[in-house]
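Need a sequence for this fold. Nothing fancy.
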């Protein structure tokens, strides 16, 4: 599909073969069982490379797939507590928080107050500080717990593998 009459040719090892007619370059590529690929179409003369185009496309797709896998997206999981959460329920939810943090996800912790419970914010904050201490090995809060109406919320971010507390 190269329409320019003369091109600068680079062989499969990366050495310049110089300027030549496009037909001669195509014949040389076919002789070697490879393709002539236009690398820099805006250059004068355009630069073409002799390569296995199918193999090149395959390697590019592998690189793109690896890059997508490397850029792991972190999800935010939500766990809700109440000031009167029982010990067993607390331990169960704490275990889930630890699992989420170990998996590399962030955890949004919500303390919900109902009715007259709102008058005991200090108990809720004490409860949350106890939770933060217990999961400190796996994650650290991104910010201090903030009050939003009848809720106290904060987000715990997972620790890096080498970032364990002393």
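Here you go.
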């Amino acid at each position: 599909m190269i329409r320019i009459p003369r091109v600068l040719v680079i062989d499969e090892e990366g050495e310049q073969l110089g300027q030549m007619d496009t037909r001669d370059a195509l014949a040389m590529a076919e002789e070697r069982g490879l393709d002539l690929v236009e690398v820099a179409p805006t250059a004068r003369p355009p630069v073409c490379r002799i390569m296995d185009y199918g193999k090149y496309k395959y390697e590019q797709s592998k690189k793109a797939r690896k890059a997508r896998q490397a850029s792991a997206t972190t999800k935010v999981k939500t766990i809700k507590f109440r000031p009167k959460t029982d010990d067993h329920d607390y331990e169960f939810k704490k275990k889930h928080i630890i699992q989420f943090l170990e998996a590399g996800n962030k955890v949004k912790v919500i303390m919900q107050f109902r009715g007259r419970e709102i008058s005991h914010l200090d108990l809720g904050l004490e409860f949350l500080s106890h939770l933060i201490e217990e999961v400190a090995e796996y994650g650290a809060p991104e910010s201090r717990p903030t009050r939003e109406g009848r809720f106290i919320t904060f987000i715990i971010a997972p620790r890096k593998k080498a970032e364990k507390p002393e």
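For context: The chain has two domains: 6-69, 76-158.
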